[in-house]
């Protein structure tokens, strides 16, 4: 895109291939942060207008599709050297020629988004461009890269979430951020091409990860109705007694361990974080 063009993905701080749920979660997080009724920033009104405009496009499948095509055409056009030249003429002959080239910038926004982008690049490098099933060793290299990316992103999120559990807004931001990380992780896992000997375990892991995403999405929705720290404390305390969370967590651990067992049995040097 042109340097001066508005990048709606940059405004919402999401990847260009983000799932609709991730875009919605990012919009809600930013809207709560920059809404003029809660933000004292003099830029709040302007930022809120940009956020609303971006979500109006990216939140609508049809408008997003049109925007993506336009965005891709502009990026392609400006990635090519321009035919215009700056020529200084001496004695009728060109003295110098300078082609103008466009600078393409990917703006990740938050540290979390940048970490996820790095992992995606690593994943593409590992997969190659054939799109066919990979060897078992290559599969676990790819899987490990995704897991490491998620751990890095969660670590960055936790560093910025010191008031989680004590402040309503900080807790909402943390939950929305974690939800986005796990959603991205699932997208990357589903993009893998597991060989036959690991496919069942791979599918089970993806399914449990999807269940975990549903729980985080539900928690995000419940937090939207929380107004006081007392209500927040009651909600978080109650989670410890909800069997959905404990059962899903255990299934996730079991699915991860199943993958680790296959790797160990095949002599593949990878250590997955299954706890």
Textual characterization of the structure:
There is one protein chain. By secondary structure, this protein is mostly helical. It folds into two domains: 1-108, DnaJ domain (Helix Hairpins), CATH 1.10.287; 110-265, no CATH class. It is 66% helix and 5% strand. It has helices spanning 8-12, 20-34, 44-58, 61-79, 111-127, 136-159, 168-191, 196-223, 229-239, 243-265, and strands at residues 85-90, 93-99. The longest helix is centred in the last third of the chain and has 28 residues, at 196-223. It starts with 7 loop residues before the first helix and ends in a 10-residue tail after the last helix.
Quick summary:
The protein is 66% helix and 5% strand. The protein is mainly alpha-helical and 275 residues long.
Q: Are there runs of 5+ residues with pLDDT below 50, and where?
A: 82-131
Query: Got a strand count?
Result: 2
Side-by-side strand order of the widest sheet: 1-2
Basic shape: flat
Our count of helices gives 10
Domains (count): 2
Order of helices and strands: HHHHEEHHHHHH
> Largest sheet, if any?
2 strands, antiparallel
State the secondary-structure class.
mainly alpha
Task: Determine the fraction of residues in helical runs and give it as a percent range.
Answer: 55-70%
Radius of gyration: 23 Å
Give the assembly state of these chains. Answer: single chain
């Amino acid at each position: 895109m042109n340097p001066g063009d508005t990048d709606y993905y940059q405004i919402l701080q999401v990847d260009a291939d983000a799932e609709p749920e991730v875009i919605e979660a990012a919009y809600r997080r930013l809207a709560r942060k920059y809404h003029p009724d809660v933000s004292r920033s003099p830029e709040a009104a302007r930022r809120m207008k940009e956020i609303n405009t971006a979500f109006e496009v990216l939140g609508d499948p049809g408008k997003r599709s049109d925007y993506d095509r336009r965005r891709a055409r502009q990026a392609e056009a400006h990635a090519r050297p321009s035919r215009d030249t700056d020529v200084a003429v001496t004695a009728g002959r060109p003295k110098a020629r300078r082609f103008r080239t466009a600078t393409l910038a990917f703006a990740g926004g938050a540290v979390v988004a940048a970490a996820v982008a790095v992992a995606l690049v690593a994943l593409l490098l590992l997969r190659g461009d054939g799109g066919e099933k990979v060897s078992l060793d290559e599969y676990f290299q790819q899987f490990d890269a995704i897991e490491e990316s998620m751990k890095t992103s969660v670590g960055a999120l936790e560093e910025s979430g010191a008031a989680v559990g004590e402040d309503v807004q900080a807790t909402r931001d943390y939950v929305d951020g974690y939800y986005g990380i796990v959603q991205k992780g699932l997208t990357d896992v589903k993009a893998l091409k597991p060989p036959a000997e690991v496919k069942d375990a791979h599918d089970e892991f993806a399914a449990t990860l999807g269940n975990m995403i549903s729980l985080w999405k539900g928690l995000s929705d419940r937090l939207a109705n929380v107004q006081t720290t007392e209500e927040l404390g009651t909600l978080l305390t109650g989670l410890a007694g909800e069997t959905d969370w404990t059962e899903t967590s255990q299934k996730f651990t079991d699915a991860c361990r199943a993958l680790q067992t296959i790797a160990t049995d095949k002599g593949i040097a990878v250590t997955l974080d299954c706890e």
